[in-house]
Design brief:
320 residues; single chain; cytoplasmic vesicle; WD40/YVTN_repeat-like_dom_sf; mainly beta; repeat; globular
């Protein structure tokens, strides 16, 4: 039985290039950082712009909610990390964190810490309870570090993706990587963790046009996802649904069955290259950032006759 696809409505508006997206864990908010240096927060229920503020004169490649503090943390091409209170717009912190572009920031799930990754080939750990002191520098990559992500099973562990073609896995207590996963033929742009039962896995996306699924414990690639015709720029494993989602500079979003690795659907919204995904627990929504805008989709899935049925409701495309 083929997967069923149903797009219920479509709202299209153009915007500046979106470099990162995030979903607030409690509020109905989308956070998007733009190539123009602006950061926006939208309410996806009312479809209204909540906040829009200029962070830098250079691209803001990564922005994340720190919901427990009512903050947004950003990393930009001007090498600075900036932190804002998203209610008052007060700037909480601003400091030069790296010597080159900041590609990614990741917020620790329980500790008062943020990771940053940069074109200077370094990853740094920042503690906001110590005045944003750098408490660890991680070194080992031989090219730009494109993304970092914390493990959902062991919060002292994180992974990094680099244009040196590797994924490295680290422990917060050591400046050197625990091990390296090497299998892509070109640079690695993106990474995400997911759990299958109690076993952790990684997924990576690469300039070799593929995504790879890695058995974290065996340190081996268990599946290569093929089908994109350009660089795979974003990957996401949905925390609530049995889905792997990949996005590419070919403009397509591929939705895969997490159990069988079968390609179930391909979505193309005409907004050019895909750059980022955002999703959160207790929600079936996915936010996608493109060259020309942001879209939220609601994914409804069910298994029938050994096959997955997917219904995609297109919720919004927003302009900043």
């Amino acid at each position: 039985m083929a997967a069923v696809l149903d797009i219920e409505k479509e709202l299209v508006q153009q915007s500046e290039r979106v470099k990162s997206v995030d979903l607030h864990p409690k509020e109905p908010w989308i956070l998007a950082s733009l190539y123009s240096g602006t950061v926006c927060i939208w309410n996806y229920h009312s479809q209204e712009l909540v906040k829009s503020f200029k962070v830098a004169e250079s691209p803001v490649r990564s922005a994340k909610f720190i919901a427990c503090k009512q903050w947004v943390v950003t990393g930009a091409d001007d090498k600075f990390i900036r932190v804002f209170n998203y209610n008052t717009m007060e700037k909480i912190a601003e400091f030069e964190a790296h010597t080159d572009f900041i590609r990614s920031v990741a917020v620790h799930p329980t500790l008062p810490c943020v990771l940053s990754a940069s074109d200077d080939m370094l990853i740094k750990l920042w503690d906001w309870e110590k005045g944003w002191e750098c408490t660890q520098t991680f070194q080992g990559h031989a090219h730009y570090v494109m993304q970092v992500a914390f493990s959902p099973k062991d919060v002292n562990t994180f992974a990094s993706a680099s244009l040196d073609g590797t994924i490295k896995v680290w422990n917060l207590s050591s400046p050197a990587p625990d091990f390296t996963l090497d299998g892509h033929s070109k640079g690695v742009n993106c990474i995400d963790y997911f759990m299958r039962g109690s076993k952790p896995y990684l997924i990576s996306g690469s300039d070799d046009h593929t995504a790879k699924v890695w058995d974290y414990e065996a340190k081996s690639c268990v599946q290569t996802l093929e089908g994109h015709t350009n660089n795979v720029s974003a990957v996401c494993v949905h925390p609530e649904l049995p889905l792997i989602i990949t996005g590419s500079e070919d403009g397509n979003v591929h939705i895969w069955d997490r159990a069988t690795y079968r390609l179930e659907n391909t979505q193309s919204y005409g907004l050019e290259r895909v750059w980022a995904f955002g999703c959160t627990k207790e929600s079936n929504r996915v936010v996608i950032g493109y060259d020309k805008g942001t879209i939220m989709i609601k994914v409804l899935s069910s298994h029938s006759g050994g096959s997955m049925g997917i219904r995609v409701e297109e919720e919004e495309k927003k302009e900043c």
